[in-house]
Amino acid sequence: MKSASFRPLALALLLVTGSALANDEAAVRKNLDTFFGGQAVDTVKKTPYGGLYEVVLKSGELVYTDAAVSFLLDGNVIDTKTKQNVTQARMAQLMKIDFATLPLDQAIKQVRGTGKRVIATFEDPNCGYCKRLAKDMVNLKDATIYTFLYPILGPDSLEKSKGIWCAKDRAAAWTDWMTAGKAPAAGSCDTAVLDKNVALGQKMRVSGTPTIFTVDGNRLPGAVPLAQLDKAMDQAATGKR
Q1: Contact assessment for residue 217 and residue 97, using Cβ atoms and an 8 Å cutoff
Q2: Which of 9, 77, 85, 185 is deepest in the core (most CB within 10 A)?
């Protein structure tokens, strides 16, 4: 049986180890900020892989380095025991959002069937992949779709977005344009929401369109096939993956 007298020593060693690790992570951050010429680092975390430190940049990128910051590794770490892509799993975790915080009043709402499965998308009206997604989602069953107009591809995208947002039936105007090429009339209403959407998307690191979020906060970048979207929505609804 271990003596209780060892407990303070064990606690002291734990505190010293934690402090040393924190100091190492702080030193890595400082050296990287110097390397990048500014405060570019969001977080630094020691990994269990070969003395690597995980570095998440404020741009959203994930890279690795050592304690001396003698190199930067931009690539995937694969755990050979579990065969898991550690980097991919970590990025998925970092890119998750709290779906409940989305300002859904800033989005176009469409309901299909029961509407029990919910997603949110960020889309540009001139995005070809968004148009392909829109045509696929016509066949989406029992779904509520919140579409945030995200005009990032140029001035015409902004004008199209204004016309859609100002339409009497926004959902119909969006669908008509995205699936049939029927352009919306010029917008003549308060379109400040579009600036808010762009700011929101930038804050959430939405760098391309379409970007889809399932109700559990997971992110699906790009126009994923309908079967993949269906599966992701079902998993989000049940909480099982």
Answers
A1: yes
A2: 77
**pLDDT digits over 59-107, tens only?**
888 999 999 999 999 989 999 999 999 998 888 888 899 999 999 999 9
From 94, 121, 145, the end of a domain falls on 94
Q: Could you tell me if 117 and 228 lie in one domain?
A: yes
The pTM of the full predicted model, rounded to 2 decimals, is 0.79
Can the peptide bond before residue 125 be classed as cis, meaning omega within 30 degrees of 0?
A: no
Q: What phi, psi does 38 have (nearest 5°)?
A: 165, 180
CA dist 97 and 94 (Å) reads: 8
Find the domain containing 90 and state its range: 6-94
> Cα(127)–Cα(201) distance, rounded to whole angstroms?
16
Residue 200: give its domain's CATH number: 3.40.30.10
pLDDT digits (tens, 9 = 90+) for 20-30: 455 788 999 99
Q: Other CB atoms closer than 10 Å to residue 25's CB: what's the count?
A: 18
Give the per-residue SS3 of 72-97. CECCCCEECCCCEEHHHHHHHHHCCC
* CATH assignment of the domain containing 30: 3.10.450.70
Instruction: Put the strands of the sheet holding 143-149 in their side by side order.
Output: 108-112, 143-149, 117-123, 211-214, 219-221
Q: Is 133 among the domain residues?
A: yes
